[in-house]
Design a protein that fits this description.
Strand content: over 45%
Number of helices: 1
Helix content: under 10%
Structural class: mainly beta
Largest sheet: 5 strands, mixed, barrel
Radius of gyration: 17 Å
Order of helices and strands: EEEEHEE
CATH architecture: Beta Barrel
CATH topology: OB fold (Dihydrolipoamide Acetyltransferase, E2P)
Number of strands: 6
Length: 129
């Protein structure tokens, strides 16, 4: 049976991206994206909710994101959800869900542009969980 894991979000970068490199030299950049939802309650009151997403980008695209995305920039992110489990320094088990992007587009005030598709890694390039 077929399955699908695809996420598309449009929002604003919550902070400047942070880039690092794996021991094998693969670039990985992470940043947060905030999306807003406006709605009216049954009482007629306007409300707004903000949802935060952690975005991870690999390879050449990671380098482009690090160079061109800044806090507040509006971006379109397309990718897949990935769940990570780890144990914190306090011994507590932790879980985080992130969007592993395969496409990032500028939508903001700068000239609209696309980062090249890609970011595919060899299995040995992935960080150990």
């Amino acid at each position: 049976m077929a399955s699908l894991n695809k996420v598309m979000i449009i929002g604003n970068a919550g902070a400047d991206p942070e880039m690092r490199f794996t021991p094998k030299g693969a670039a990985v950049t992470s940043f947060t994206v905030a999306t807003n939802r406006r709605y009216m309650t049954a009482d007629g009151e306007n409300k707004e909710e903000t949802e935060w997403f952690r975005v991870v980008v690999w390879g050449k695209q990671a380098e482009s994101c690090n160079q061109f995305v800044s806090k507040g920039d509006q971006v379109y992110v397309e990718g897949r959800l990935c769940t990570r489990n780890w144990e914190g320094q306090d011994g507590q088990k932790r879980v985080s869900v992130e969007v592993v992007a395969n496409r990032v587009l500028f939508l903001g005030k700068r000239s609209a542009g696309s980062f090249p598709e890609g970011g595919e890694l060899e299995p040995g390039d992935l960080p150990a969980d």
